């Protein structure tokens, strides 16, 4: 049978190379896509192929990681998310400042800002709910996430003029801590869909939380965990709804982080020990004090002339 080395090797097509490069880029840990891109560039040794891969991968990565970029007029930061994306994939709405930022995905910077049009913003009725929720969330994020960012978008019913119809707000929370000089990077991402159901006077809250961490000092250890949850509250005034929804988010995020801390603090004491069988298949401990009872040991000792 021929060795694998003797088999003819088929050259990958440009399409296959680009798809492989995109996979590595989009799956890079938080804050590390530029390091991955540098390595891919040296491996591909083809600028046109490299440029095609990064042009497709960076927007996907940036939106998946909810990266926060400072706007050039210093009016605030904009989150790059699918919920704020405006046609073309390079413009992103910042609801808090009612501005649209133009983003260079590969450089991960905002290049310019323009005022949002009336068609891009929710009605005054919806904005009343959005603004007070945004205010409460900013307080929570400032308390809980150093350098964290949040934004509230209207994704359904933004043109509703008053009570009597359903609408949906989406909360995005993003926090990252990058310390490559200490060989570690990490991020927190959460998305909360807030459905205001007027007919049954209920606000339904559905959340997804994601935690990513990468530690690479003399090794490569990654954490990628997520958790989904649901809750609800009574539809009240905009101010009361904002307070209730923020408390729900605070409760579930705190509960999830606490459960993660407890799980990983028990790794060395419980989980790792459970991975190892306490007794061999024979259900008896190995007699290290009397190994001469085994024929193999006797034979080796006899051969080497060290019999007792």
From TrEMBL:
Keywords: Actin capping, Actin-binding. InterPro entries: CapZ_alpha (IPR002189), CapZ_alpha/beta (IPR037282), CapZ_alpha/beta_2 (IPR042276), CapZ_alpha_1 (IPR042489), F-actin_cap_asu_CS (IPR017865). GO terms for molecular function: actin filament binding. One of its GO terms (cellular component) is F-actin capping protein complex. One of its GO terms (biological process) is actin cytoskeleton organization. The keyword Cytoplasm does not apply. Belongs to the F-actin-capping protein alpha subunit family. F-actin-capping proteins bind in a Ca(2+)-independent manner to the fast growing ends of actin filaments (barbed end) thereby blocking the exchange of subunits at these ends. Unlike other capping proteins (such as gelsolin and severin), these proteins do not sever actin filaments. Heterodimer of an alpha and a beta subunit. This is F-actin-capping protein subunit alpha. The lineage of its organism: Eukaryota, Viridiplantae, Streptophyta, Embryophyta, Tracheophyta.
């Amino acid at each position: 049978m021929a060795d694998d080395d003797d088999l003819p090797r088929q050259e990958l097509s440009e399409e296959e190379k680009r798809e492989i490069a995109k996979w590595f880029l989009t799956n890079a840990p938080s804050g590390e896509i530029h390091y991955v891109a540098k390595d891919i560039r040296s491996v591909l040794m083809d600028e046109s192929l490299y440029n095609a891969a990064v042009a497709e991968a960076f927007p996907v990565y940036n939106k998946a990681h909810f990266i926060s970029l400072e706007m050039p007029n210093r009016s605030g930061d904009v989150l790059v998310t699918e919920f704020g994306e405006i046609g073309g994939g390079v413009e992103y709405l910042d609801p808090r400042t009612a501005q649209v930022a133009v983003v260079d995905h590969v450089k991960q910077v905002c290049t310019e800002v323009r005022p949002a049009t009336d068609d891009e913003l929710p009605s005054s009725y919806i904005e009343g709910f959005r603004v007070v929720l945004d205010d409460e969330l900013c307080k929570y994020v400032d308390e809980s996430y150093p350098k964290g960012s949040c934004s509230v978008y209207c994704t359904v019913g933004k043109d509703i003029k008053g009570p009597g119809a359903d609408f949906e707000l989406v909360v995005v929370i993003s926090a990252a801590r990058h310390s490559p000089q200490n060989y570690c990077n990490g991020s927190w991402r959460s998305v909360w869909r807030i459905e205001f159901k007027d007919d049954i006077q209920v606000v339904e809250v559905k959340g997804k939380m994601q935690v990513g961490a990468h530690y690479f000092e003399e090794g490569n250890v990654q954490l990628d965990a997520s958790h989904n949850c649901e809750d609800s509250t009574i539809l009240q005034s905009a101010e009361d709804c904002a307070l209730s929804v923020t408390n729900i988010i605070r409760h579930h995020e705190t509960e999830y982080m606490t459960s993660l801390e407890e799980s990983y603090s028990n790794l060395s004491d419980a989980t790792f020990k459970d991975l190892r069988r306490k007794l061999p298949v024979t259900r008896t401990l190995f007699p290290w004090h009397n190994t001469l009872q085994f024929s193999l040991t006797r034979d080796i000792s006899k051969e080497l002339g060290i019999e007792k």
